[in-house]
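Exercise: predict the fold of this chain.
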Amino acid sequence: MSKRLSFAPLAATIGLGLSLIAGSLVAPTVAQAEGEIRIAEQFGIVYLLLNVVRDQNLIEKYGKQEGLDIKVDWTQLSGGAAVNDALLSGSIDIAGAGVGPLLTIWDRTHGKQNVKAVASLGNFPYYLVSNNPKVKTIADFTEQDRIAVPAVGVSVQSRFLQYAAARQWGDKEFNRLDKYTIAVPHPDATAALIAGGTELSGHFSNPPFQDQALANPNVHVVLNTYDLLGPNSPTVLFATEKFRNENPKTYKAFVEALTEAAQFAQNDKGAAADTYIRVTKAKIDRAALLKIIDNPQFEFSVTPKNTYPLAEFLYRVGAIKHKPDSWKDYFFQDAKPLQGS
């Protein structure tokens, strides 16, 4: 009989240093005035651009060019549902989450708060990994298996799993594997998968957690998102139309800061690795981290790539009600428009 999941001690065993602030516990506040910005990030290398922005005080730098002393507040959440709730409650101004949560909140606020993406955080393959030797493909998961995702049904990992299920069994069965998914933060899910002995046998992960799990010989890749969609931007930053319109200088400073951070991370992987360790205090070997970051499939860029196929899929299966004509419908188009997809 499978053991029940107990994650806190497991995370400690591999020193991932979970520091989680639940979005539901953040009290709603009024919109911030020009010169203040509150940013929510999650876990993993996919948020490295925000680590660089924070480490180098880039928002403050570009704020001064606009005549502002910008106050920046950083929050760490887990899961797109918590991030979306925090944004809609007015607790944060910039939300960091997957394309799945973005499309959910874009659809939900269409014609109202009009939440849209600001930029991509880069292109990265996400892996669905498992410690169950019987699970070779998604078709091998059974009632005895549980698959960890950041947020059930909403996270980009959940949406990728639905996309894969639709390809395997048809659109009418797109949510066939949802009943096996549970919401667990990446650090805890990684620790549980490595330790074994629980019902959690799968984890739809992201770097560096998927790489840490795969260092264990009992863990293997079941699904690679690049095999589903090709190179794509799984994680993005988004905001309300109100914040963008009422804080043009702060918003511009943030976009400029993010653009510089992308150039820095893409051009100096060693410095990017040092930044990640310094800011996140992750207990990960620098050489191992650099090997992950130096993956030729990784691209640190603010330009979204290949996001529209997922958007079209979610509309097709009824997961969102509004059909975007293109990726430009759910991304803000600024003075320097992105050339994405």
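Check your answer against the key: Residues 34 and 247 are 5 Å apart (CA to CA).
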